Amino acid sequence: MHPKGENSKAENLKIALVQADTRYDSVSGNLAHLEELLESNNEEAQIYLLPELFNTGYEKAFSTRPEAFGLETTRWMTLMAKRKKAAICGSVAMSEEGKTFNRMLFVLPDGTHFQYDKVNVFKFSGEDKVFSPGNELPVFSFLGWRIKPIICFDLRFPETVRNRAPYYDLILCSAHWPLPRIEAWDKLLMARAIENQAYVAAVNRFGQEEKGQYPGHSAGIDFLGRPMAEMPSEETIRIISCSHASLTSFRQNFPFLP
């Protein structure tokens, strides 16, 4: 389903970084927990960004039956988008035509959506045995902003994220990035922002699942590679505000992308 066109433009785009713990054994339990977390936040945003595989957790996604679009998780995303009057974004294991994809969904209040299937599946953990890789690198428009979606391991591949004309303004990244490699996460977020002259909004899961420990380190990074929010090591929501005028001015003064 392709989203409807927009008539409004947001000069300042507010993004809620939802650093959540996927702690329950059921999809329903995780969605209920996320709903409570979202409802506890009183500050408004235009995008609510959730972690990778937010409805199951990482390890459980390998054994949980993937959903088709329109079932429990996507119905919940549409409900929350309507309630918050904002876009809800995050990745889920989704079935389509006999395949399973790690799919980022960007759901609008009217129920329309954008989607991106993770291109760089993480073979080291066996993702390639469960998830089919995507074959498209979309950029979509929302409130006058051009947005590049990526998922976790994509962050390590500059060619996947490369900003080409017509240039995007913002990278959205959902992740399940573990503690032993968290320094790489921190540095790669800054690198992707700097080399692409774009904002980065990235949410990493917080908590523990089997042997995996996830420390959060969700971040908003501006086009100069500077952190925009302090994220404590706990479940939390932080709002970042991205300025289109500041980004445009910087690109005009330093036209590196062309």
Strand order of the largest sheet: 5-4-3-2-1-13
Largest sheet: 6 strands, mixed
Helix content: 10-25%
SS field, number of helical segments:
6
Strand percentage, roughly? Answer: 25-35%
Element order: H for helix, E for strand: EHEHHEEEEEHEHEEEEEH
Could you give the distance between the termini?
33 Å
Corresponding CATH superfamily: Carbon-nitrogen hydrolase
CATH class: Alpha Beta
Shape: globular
- What are the segments in which pLDDT stays under 50 over at least 5 consecutive residues? none
Q: Tell me the structural class.
A: alpha/beta
Number of E-type strands: 13
The name CATH uses for the topology is: Nitrilase/N-carbamoyl-D-aminoacid amidohydrolase
Task: Give the averaged pLDDT, no decimals.
Answer: 94
Number of structurally distinct domains? 1
CATH architecture field:
4-Layer Sandwich
Rg on CA atoms, Å: 17 Å
Quick summary:
With 258 residues, the chain is an alpha/beta fold.
What key phrases describe this protein's structure?
globular; 6 helices; alpha/beta; 258 residues; Nitrilase/N-carbamoyl-D-aminoacid amidohydrolase; five-stranded mixed β-sheet
